[in-house]
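Please complete every field before forwarding. Incomplete forms are returned to the sender.

SECTION A: IDENTIFIERS
Entry label: holo-274
Bound molecule: flavin-adenine dinucleotide
Molecule representation: SMILES string

SECTION B: INPUTS
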Amino acid sequence: MPLDVRVATSMAEAAGLLSSDQRTKFLSGGTLVMRDVNEGRLLDGTLLRLTDPAYRQMNASGPRVELGAGVTMAMVLNNRDLPFLHAVARAIGGPAIRQMATIGGNLFAETPYGDFAVALLALDAQVMVQSGYGSARTVAIEEFLGARDRGVSGLVTAVQFAKPQNAADFKFRKISRVKPKGISVMSIAAHLPNSGSRIVQARVAYGAMAPTPVRARGVERALEGKSLDSASIHAAKAAALEGTRPLTDAIATEWYRREVMPVHLGRLLTGEGR
Ligand SMILES: Cc1cc2nc3c(=O)[nH]c(=O)nc-3n(C[C@H](O)[C@H](O)[C@H](O)COP(=O)(O)OP(=O)(O)OC[C@H]3O[C@@H](n4cnc5c(N)ncnc54)[C@H](O)[C@@H]3O)c2cc1C
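SECTION C: PREDICTED COMPLEX
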């Protein structure tokens, strides 16, 4: 059977069509789906496109940001209310990929892809998912990513998160062998808000250090309530590998990822090597 293309005009219609036919595949920016089509891994079924303008809407002027799942990396880069995410969006592919690649698709991208999802995890984002014709539900991103490989049913419509009060509290680094367009050896995002000079509610997330982006809970504990100084950074580096399960792939071995993670975490925290 040939591959068919359908167009939905509303998110409810798209979510309904996805839930009613397991052979329907959602096409967001298509940078991964179309590669599967072009390379013969996806040969039949239905590709579903969505033209609802709300899917690409951005509300980023206030303290709470909501980004439609169809927002592309290029749109993030052009948004002046999101300067803390510019380095993240710029780290994804080259200009042509960034024009197409969406936030929604990045949440599903297999390791070592998923750099934007790493940033969203450090921002404690909420993921809005619509299943069938019912109303959308909100899922914490950590739960969403944990359940992803068991098969998320439904359409991701948007993500929401609180904007960092101080852009300097949010740090991101992607480590790759080929610059500027290489695939991640790993990526690291940290949101380290301050009260006085103490870190409160530290969030640190890794990409390519487990089958999905994961929180670095040992690092968060080492930084919580401390000021960012050589002692706390030393403790954070000592805890850097807690909870990680890196894979060996064409980019790096598991061994290499473990060896260099504490070094890159230290550089992220000190701001060294930029
Ligand atoms: C040359 C190249 C370079 C790349 N470089 C990077 C990189 O540096 N970093 C990186 O993170 N990624 C990279 N990628 C991977 C990819 O481009 C990005 O992860 C991108 O964000 C995926 O988004 P998309 O909209 O293109 O996804 P699509 O290809 O449209 O979809 C990907 C998957 O997600 C599902 N999906 C998408 N949106 C939704 C939704 N709203 N609800 C439910 N399911 C959904 C689709 O059904 C599909 O299974 C690269 C890809 C290529 C081809």
